[in-house]
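Q: I'm writing up a methods section and want to include an example of the input and output format. Could you take the sequence below and give the corresponding predicted structure tokens, formatted cleanly so I can copy it straight into the document?
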Amino acid sequence: MLTSRPALSRFIAVMFLMIAAQALMETTFGLWADVELSWGPREVGWTLAALGVGAVLLQGGGAGAASRALGERMTLFIGLALFAAGLGGLGVTHQTATLIASLTALVIGLGLATPALNALIAAQASEHERGAVMGLSQSAGALGRVAGPLGAGALFDIFHHAAPFIAASVLILCALFVALSEPSKDVIGASQS
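A: Here is the clean output for your methods example:
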């Protein structure tokens, strides 16, 4: 299925890279916050909870409005760019104010990119194969959840405590490049429904 559909292959690769980058960040955020800001479990927990609530709110309303106004592809591009900027900002921040700005960009980016990417993936399937295509997407996400944390600890321990965030930002920039690589003209769902 993937070899005969380049647009679907690109979007599945973007899903893998996006989730791997998110997992890199989530795996080491608590360790980073301890080293950089002297935060404990309470501050880290509240911060991650706020990120989750922000992403849910965005995905529940803001992302749909953005997609209607800009289209899914542009919403994905903007979301990935903000996600990369937020991760990169985390890699260089040393203060709470820049942390808040970085996390805000990250959560807006993730909140915009995820639903737009899911919609673009679903559009690559005809009615009778939508489950299989979305299953591929979920498999790519699950693989990203495994791959991201595999290198996170080593990056943190061997290179620098901010290295996982920089690596995650690079992954998102790669995802942005993959998403931008060629316009998606082969939308299956729209033409075969």
